[in-house]
């Protein structure tokens, strides 16, 4: 863990999320995510039954699990917790086997269609680590969720 002795966490205030998907677009832009896959997405959740149905957005991204199944199943240890508790993937070690995808209970990983390695939300770790600001999804949320 880092010298500051803390781990990062992300809180999404769903009362401020308007479901615009700016977070998904910002993530795709920051991380060069190809069409057809996402690192972050907004799920529409329905509650109630007709005629009293309500829908609300729920932001879905990697939860950076402390006891992450994806880190345990990777046969080449390409998925691991970095010093600040963020679950990251070393693309040079990853063999694209998909075990981490199968192990993730939140279905928040994909195999990049051309690079053939696993990818997921890493909370824009290089950007945060280098002091360039918060994750791009946070910077671009018009609702401040």
- The number of helices is 5
Return the domain count. Answer: 2
**Rg, alpha carbons:** 16 Å
Helix vs. strand class = alpha+beta
According to DSSP, the number of beta strands is 6
CATH topology (fold) name of the largest domain: Alpha-Beta Plaits
Q: Calculate the terminal CA-CA distance, rounded to whole Å.
A: 27 Å
| CATH 2nd-level architecture of the largest domain | 2-Layer Sandwich
The main sheet comes to: 2 strands, antiparallel
Q: Can you tell me the residue ranges where pLDDT is under 50 for at least 5 consecutive residues?
A: none
Helix content: 10-25%
Strand content: 15-25%
Shape: globular
**Widest sheet: strand ordering:** 1-2
**CATH top level assignment of the largest domain:** Alpha Beta
N-to-C series of helices and strands = HEEHEEHEEHH
Mean pLDDT score, rounded? 93
Draw up the topology in text.
Elements (H helix, E strand, L loop, with lengths): L21 H10 L9 E7 L6 E7 L8 H5 L5 E3 L5 E3 L9 H5 L5 E3 L6 E3 L4 H5 L6 H4 L6
Antiparallel strand pairs: 1-2, 3-4, 5-6
């Amino acid at each position: 863990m880092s010298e500051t002795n803390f781990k990062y966490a992300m809180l999404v205030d769903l009362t401020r999320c308007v479901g615009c998907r700016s977070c998904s677009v910002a993530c795709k832009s920051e991380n060069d995510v190809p069409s057809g896959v996402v690192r972050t997405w907004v799920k529409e959740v329905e509650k109630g039954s007709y005629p009293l149905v309500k829908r609300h957005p729920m932001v879905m991204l990697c939860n950076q699990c402390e006891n992450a199944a994806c880190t345990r199943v990777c046969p080449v240890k390409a998925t691991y917790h970095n010093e600040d508790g963020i679950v990251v993937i070393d693309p040079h070690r990853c063999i694209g086997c998909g075990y981490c995808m199968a192990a993730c209970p939140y279905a928040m990983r994909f195999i990049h269609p051309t690079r053939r390695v696993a990818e997921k939300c890493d909370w824009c770790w290089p950007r945060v680590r280098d002091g360039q600001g918060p994750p791009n999804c946070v910077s671009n949320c018009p609702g401040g969720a």
